[in-house]
Structure formats: C-alpha cells, structure tokens
TrEMBL record, chain A:
Keywords: Membrane, Transmembrane, Transmembrane helix. The chain crosses the membrane at residues 21-39, 111-133, 154-182, 210-229, 236-255, 289-309. This is ABC-type transport system permease protein. One of its GO terms (molecular function) is ABC-type transporter activity. The keyword Glycosyltransferase does not apply. GO terms for cellular component: plasma membrane.
From TrEMBL, chain B:
It comes from the Bacteria. Keywords: ATP-binding, Nucleotide-binding, Transport. InterPro entries: AAA+_ATPase, ABC_transporter-like_ATP-bd, ABC_transporter-like_CS, P-loop_NTPase. This is Fe(3+)-transporting ATPase. Belongs to the ABC transporter superfamily. GO terms for molecular function: ATP binding; ATP hydrolysis activity. It holds the Pfam family ABC_tran. Residues 7-235 form the ABC transporter domain.
C-alpha cells in the first residue's frame, strides 16, 4: 500500500510541476475576477433607503404589465408574478434586497463548466500524455500493475479537480466579498417554487451545487481517461473530450424532444438542472434517474478503459 | 555458470496482425555475463526486449526472469529488472533528480543515498537538478542508465545504451557494465548497432535477423572462429612458395605479391603449409592470420543485408 501512496505522489508531482497547471489556475482566478465586475454592472438588485416603499411601487408597476401583456406574452406574466410574490415576502419578513457575496458565490458555481474543461486537459495529459512523450514504457516496467497506475492517475486528477473547485470557492468568496461586501450574506435566498415563496440557506445551496459539480467532474474525467487510453495521443484525446463535452448541450437541444434522449450521457451530466427554479432537460427526468444513468456510464467507461489499458501492447 | 540462469526465453513468438515479427527465439542468459543482442535494423531486437519487460504480450512461448514467468508473475519478475527500451524518455518538465525520485517511489527500498550514488556513477552530479529538457542526448542516456540501476536489479536490459554517448562515456559505461556482471553477478543484456562495441563489451553474442536467431556464440569464438581464415606468409620467393602451397590447397585462390603469398585456409592447415614451405627452402619472415572482425563476421552471417 505504501507503494500505491508513492504512485499518487508521483502523479501529483507530475501535475503540479507542469507550468501549465498554474496557468490554468491563474485563468480560473482571472475569470472569477472578470465575472465579478461584469455581474455587478449588469444587474444590481440592491435597494436602499425606504426599500419597502420602493418594492411596493415596483409591484404596482409589475401588476400593470401583467394586465397589458396577459394575452400576448405569457412569459412576462409568469416572471412578474414570481417577482411580485417574492417582493411581498420581503416586505412581510423584513428581508431587504441586498446584493452580497452570497449572490456572487451562487453565480460563480457556473464556473464548474470551465473547471470541467481544465480537468479534461489535465486528465488527457496524465494518461495520453505519457504515450505521446514515450514515458509510458518507463512507467509500466515497474512492479505496479497497470490497473493501479491508472487508478493513481485517476485519483490525482480528481484531487486536482477538487483543488480547482476549492480555488473557485475561495477566490469567489474573497473577490465577491470585496466587490459586493459581506453584509447580508447570511440572508436566505428566496425562490418561488410550486406557487409559493420558499427560503433557502445560501450556503446549503452553494454546497449542493459544488457537490453536483464534483459528480460531473468525476464522470467527465472518466470519459477523458477512456478517450486517452483509446487514442494514446494527448492532443487528440484532449481535443475530442473537450469538443464532445462542449457540444453536448448543443446536441441535447436538438434531440431533447425525443424521450430516449434522457439516456444520453450529456443529458445527465449537469445535475444543477434539479436545483430550484430550473427544469430538467427532458420531461420526466429526476435526480435519482440521472444518478443511476451516470453510474451506468461510469461503470461502462471504467471497465472499457481498464480492459483496453491492460491488454494493449505498448509500442510508444 | 550453467545453473545460474537469470533470463530464459523458450520458443518466443510474436505476431502483429498477420505478420510474424519474432519467429521462435530460445536462449538462456546467465548471471555474471554481458549478453549482446545483434541484428540489422528491424530484426526484432527491440520487440524482443519489449516482451522481456512486459510491454508487449507474447503470441506464444514463455519468458522467465529468475524463474518467474513474465506473464503470470509479472510483479515478481519485473522487480528484478532494470531497463531502457529504445530511447530513455524521461519527464522533460522535471529535473533529472525528480525523475529518479519518481521511479524510486515505484520500487522498494531505494534511499536518497542510493539515488545520490547512482547519479555520481553516471557522472551527472553537477547537472542533476536541471530540467531534463535542457539535457543533451548523452546526458539523457546517462539519466536513463541511472533509472535502470536505481533498485540494484539482477537483470539489466539496455536497448542501445551507448547511443549518443561520447567515446569517454562509452568506455565508462562499458567498463561499468562489465564490472557489474563480474562483481555483482548480474545479467546484462545489451543491444547495439556499434558492432565493435559489442566485441569489447559482450561475453556472448546472439545474432538475430528477421525475427530468427541465426547465431549464438561466445564473442571469442565468434571473432577468432574455428573455421577458415585468411593467412599471409611474407617470404623471399613468392613464386616458389605458391607452387609449394598448391599441393595443400585443392581449391581456392592463392594471391601473390612482391614479397608475400595469401590464401584462405583452415586453421588446422597452417602448420603443415608452413612446414612444406620450409622444406622447399622458402624463407618465411612472418605469418599473419587475419582475424575477422565481428563486423565482417556480422555482415557475412547476415548476408550483408542492412535492413530487413
Ligand atoms: N507495433 C508494431 N506493429 C507492427 N510491426 C511492428 C511493430 N513494432 C515493430 N514492428 C516490426 O517488427 C520488426 C522488428 O522491429 P524492432 O523494432 O524490434 O527492430 P530492431 O531490431 O529493434 O531494429 P532497430 O535496430 O532499428 O532498432 C520490424 O520489421 C518492425 O517493422
Ligand atoms: Mg531497436
């Protein structure tokens, strides 16, 4: 077992000694910084002064819009109704609308899609990169089984993804706090669900989203490992896995009208579709269904990867 | 020595697709010897080495290392092996030291002290903390040899180990490998294109061509050969000498020069020809039996084909 610990240390060393790894982390932090400012300029919902009065005025305005647009634009009706209910709730329970670091933390969970791409790059480099560089034969002529070598790589890549998630959280917290202030961060978020307003703990929601992000990262890393072992060429494996994962949502938008499309991998990777205020991609999908589908893909990918990696002659 | 077989190949075959690239190799390699693997480009040397270290599967046959089957007891077998297969590719973005640290973590019982020792041995002490991407070809080769020696293996397999080394480096490595075999009793297997190198380094040489073993002999026998050789007699009267030698030579040419005659004869015939010449009154100043170099022998055995 001490041997296996050594394998993981080796893989970590190879990930963090590559200059590119820190460039990736820098890119992530830069993106957090940029979006923090962009987001502030686009929508600022903070209402100060006599905010209850202001919300009431807004509600009257929204009510008028509903009457005017009732026939022509059902979307506006739905949106405004939700807004009115939430405003009423705020006035009743004394929740002043304050934009705080909590809102930004919630927004920045969408950075998971960037983290997926960075993880795909590292995963492709970790497995296919050894073939491209020819180091794979140096790695395999040691008293460790090929399965253990692959497993140590997988663990190191998942650890890297977790490091990125943590980095994203910490950077968002610090930068978001500086841009929006920490005041009001403990206020619950208000969501309009099934005809009534619900309060939710902000950090509970954020952790849930990060948890979903972890699941997505694990399945995507498995996918990248499979492509790496099949192609044995890092640029090809990285390009293929990124293109497939990015075009996943586009492909889904074309095929989501068919009910079989819910079995497609990319219909299930983004679990945040099950959070409040969003709808699943295909009708009838549930969180448990998606997790079951992902589990099946995970097992199939893993078995294929291990079998191919163990069997193949290494001629690199 | 016979009972000290460290590596054994039994009718090893390898097919890729419908093409058979190794057509049944069988030989044993003993502890304490430097074993040379000689063959023209594409003969199958690297392929055989890949099978010995488990990078490629065998289509049929069996390879054992210290009695452990490379297929069924891979970990036990490979724990005894240090190897370079083709070029010693290392992680370019790591330093030489980090590369060695990396490989030391994959085997049991390599201390920091041992790493230092090996680094000194291959003469990289001054440059070991530099990134490998800044190494020259010869320095990479030295680092490759260092990683193969790290865990003090009892079988050392080196595919073209002198590739890229300067003459001093070649000599150092050659002497070190010979020492390892003599003193530590390990089996050293090398393949090389430098035939003269093999002659100096190896105890036994296997020649393979088109995936077949076509010769396996001790280097000494190989070079001197029990067979025929070209002999030159430096004499005072070449014409008389030629006439006398004719009696012994049923066929073949006798070359003559101003002060010598030359002929291809069996080793055993040399004393008799000399006696005849003396009896005929020819004065002999010197007799030179040209030993064939391994290179000539190699070209002769492989029919001079350079690439299969
Ligand atoms: N992966 C492969 N697939 C198909 N054929 C291969 C493969 N690897 C090697 N060969 C073929 O096997 C033969 C032996 O190749 P090998 O690399 O073992 O030769 P070698 O003796 O090491 O040659 P060199 O002296 O050039 O290094 C060659 O004809 C080569 O084309
Ligand atoms: Mg070769």
């Amino acid at each position: 077992m001490s041997n296996f610990w050594g394998l993981i240390r080796n893989e970590n060393m190879k990930i963090y000694r590559k200059p590119g790894t820190f460039v990736m982390m820098g890119i992530l932090v830069a993106l957090v910084l940029i979006t923090a400012f962009l987001f502030k300029n686009i929508v600022d919902e903070t209402v100060t002064g006599n905010w209850k009065q202001k919300l009431q005025t807004e509600n009257v305005q929204l009510q008028k819009e509903i009457k005017k647009e009732a026939k022509s634009n059902p979307g506006i009706v739905k949106y405004n109704t939700e807004k009115i209910e939430i405003n009423k709730y705020r006035i009743k329970h004394n929740y002043q609308p304050i934009r705080s670091v909590a809102d930004y933390l919630q927004k920045s969970t969408s950075m998971v899609s960037i983290i997926v791409i960075l993880t795909l790059i590292v995963a492709g480099g970790s497995v296919a990169g050894e073939f491209s560089a020819g180091t794979i034969k140096m790695l395999l002529i040691r008293p460790s089984s090929r399965t253990m070598i692959l497993l140590s790589k997988f663990i190191a890549v998942i650890l890297f993804a977790i490091v990125l998630l943590l980095l994203n959280f910490v950077a968002s917290f610090i930068i978001g706090g500086l841009v929006y202030g920490f005041e009001g961060a403990s206020q619950p978020i208000l969501e309009y669900v099934n005809g009534h307003v619900e309060t939710m703990n902000v950090f509970g929601e954020i952790w849930k989203q990060y948890g979903y992000g972890c699941i997505e990262l694990i399945i995507m890393a498995t996918f990248a490992f499979m492509l790496s072992v099949m192609f044995r060429n890092s640029s090809l494996a990285i390009a293929a896995s990124i293109i497939l994962s990015m075009s996943g949502s586009i492909i889904m938008s074309f095929i989501s009208k068919y009910s079989w499309s819910k079995y497609v991998l990319f219909a299930n990777t983004d679990l945040t579709m099950y959070t409040a205020g969003r709808t699943p991609l295909v009708k009838g999908m549930t969180l448990n269904f998606s997790i079951a589908v992902l589990l099946v893909y995970f097992i199939v990918f893993t078995v294929l990867t291990v079998v191919v990696f163990k069997k193949r002659d290494v001629a690199a | 020595m016979e009972n000290n077989v460290l590596v054994s190949l039994k009718d090893v075959k390898k097919s890729v697709g419908s093409k058979e690239i190794i057509k049944g190799l069988s030989f044993d390699i003993h502890g304490g010897e430097v074993f040379g693997f000689l063959g023209p480009n594409g003969a199958g040397k690297t392929t055989t080495i890949r099978m010995m270290v488990g990078l490629m599967s065998l289509s049929s046959g069996e390879i054992t290392i210290k009695g452990k089957n490379i297929k069924t007891q891979y970990k036990e077998a490979i724990a005894n092996v240090g190897a370079i297969v083709e070029n010693p590719e290392m992680y370019k973005f790591l330093t030489g030291y980090q590369n060695l640290l990396h490989f030391s973590r994959m085997v049991k019982g390599v201390s920091k002290q041992r790493i230092k020792e090996v680094v000194a041995l291959v003469g990289l002490t001054d440059r070991i903390h530099e990134k490998v991407k800044r190494y020259s070809l010869g320095m990479r080769q030295r680092l490759g040899i260092a990683q193969a020696l790290l865990h003090s293996p009892s079988v050392l397999i080196l595919d073209e180990p002198t590739n890229g080394l300067d003459p001093a480096g070649i000599r150092e490595i050659r002497e070190y490998l010979r020492d390892l075999a003599r003193k530590e009793g390990i089996a050293v297997i090398v393949s090389s294109h430098l035939l003269s190198e093999m002659e100096l380094m190896c105890d036994r040489i296997a020649i393979i061509q088109k995936g077949e073993l076509i010769g396996l002999q001790a280097t000494r026998e190989f070079v001197q050969g029990a067979g025929t050789k070209k002999v030159r007699f430096v004499v005072d009267q070449p014409q008389a000498a030629e006439k006398a030698a004719r009696h012994h030579l049923k066929e073949g040419e006798i070359g003559t020069g101003d002060d010598y005659i030359e002929m291809i004869v069996e080793r055993e015939d040399i004393p008799e020809i000399t006696a005849t010449l003396v009896v005929e009154g020819v004065r002999i100043y010197s007799i030179v039996a040209e030993t064939q170099t391994l290179e000539e022998k190699f070209l002769e055995v492989t029919g001079g084909e350079s690439v299969v």
